[in-house]
Amino acid sequence: MATLSEAYTETPLHLQHIIPIDFDSVKEVPESHSWPRSGDESPRRILSLDGDHFSLPAIDLDSPDAIKMVGHACKVMGIFQVTNHGIPSSLLREVESQAWQFFSLPAIAKVRAVRSPGGATGYGVARMTPFFNKFMWHEGFTMMGSPLEHAREVWPHGYGKFCEAMEDYQDKMKALSERLLAMILKYLGISEHDIDWPRLRSNPCSALQLNSYPQCPDPGQVMGLAPHTDTFFLTILHQKDSAHGLQFHREGRGWVPVFPMDGALVVNVGDMLHIMSNAMFPSVVHRVITNEKRHRLSMGYFYGPPMDFRVGPIHRLMQTSGQEVAARFRSITVKDYVQMKAKNLDKALSMIRIR
Ligand code: OGA
Ligand code: NI
Fold first, then answer.
1. 296 in active site
2. Keyword set for this entry (predicted)?
């Protein structure tokens, strides 16, 4: 069974594109991390006129209309929040606290968990770093299942609580992802016979990504996470209370901030759901700015199909109301798409688009 790490072996990274700077030791923003002050790439550029007053809809998953609302939000925005999601707040606090413990360590200790050049898991900067001229004000820790291999390098005798919290969180996030995906398919009128549901669920490709955006001497100069779309079906994001920074891009509106809402999780559509829905659901472009003088933490759970699964527009979706709708994408295995994205980032989607 292919793994995500195997998909990355063809695109190994240099250590300079893995190991973050020592954020504790910088007194001013280095040139390497200073983004343009104007232009499309500028972190300062917020086109949204009324963005500050916009709040992303929160859908109560226990509501009788939840399926309709989730489907509608996927179609119109590609991003929404959910409440009554079943993830205990005690678990969210515990994962936050474990993540803080890790990111508060000195740089020399964190680097013991460093991601390998062709690997997918461990400590490091965002994998898309080589595609940009400047570095991001960000450090991350990625895991797929048990983080034991990395955690025990960091805490040889005290990794138990960290691993336990991360594994429990991933189990519950997986169940929530399946619940959301089932709701979305139901909204689309897709039955479990229309797609290979048992196989889709049997060995899903998923990852938990802890993100840390350290305090910055001049937040307006740096980019937390550069604009991107997520690769898999969907992402479920928890933002630690008061520290906001996530923004998504809306046509005609610009960058819209997503303020953390107590008890709510952010869900966004990724490339693979965009492909399977035959472009009905947008794979939402988002970024993170470090606009506050405080350390920000978030936890993203990425949920996708197994590595050898073929993603393509769902056949049944193209035969609605007696009319044949043309497929907008050719189908591709998850592994090939992940590799294509590792080599081409945002160009990957257009490479499989049928014109
Ligand atoms: C990501 C991401 C947003 C955030 O990890 O892909 O978009 O708020 N994170 O940290
Ligand atoms: Ni993302």
1. yes
2. Iron, Metal-binding, Oxidoreductase
Are 295 and 85 within 8 A, CB to CB? no
- Structure confidence by residue, pLDDT tens digits, 313-348: 998 888 866 778 899 999 999 999 999 999 999 999
CA distance 70 to 283: 15
> What tokens appear for 125 in the block?
């900067």
The model's pTM is 0.94
pLDDT tens string 111-134: 999 999 888 999 999 999 999 999
Q: Where are the beta strands (DSSP E) in the chain?
A: 58-60, 79-83, 122-124, 139-143, 205-213, 223-228, 234-239, 246-250, 254-257, 265-269, 286-289, 296-304, 310-311, 332-333
What size, in residues, is the chain? 355
d(C-alpha 326, C-alpha 323), whole Å: 10
Helices 160-188, 66-76: crossing angle, 10 deg rounding: 90
> How far does the centroid of ligand 1 lie from the alpha carbon of residue 248, in Å?
10
Answer yes or no: is the C-beta of 283 below 6 A from any ligand 1 atom: no
Domains of the chain: 4-351 (2.60.120.330)
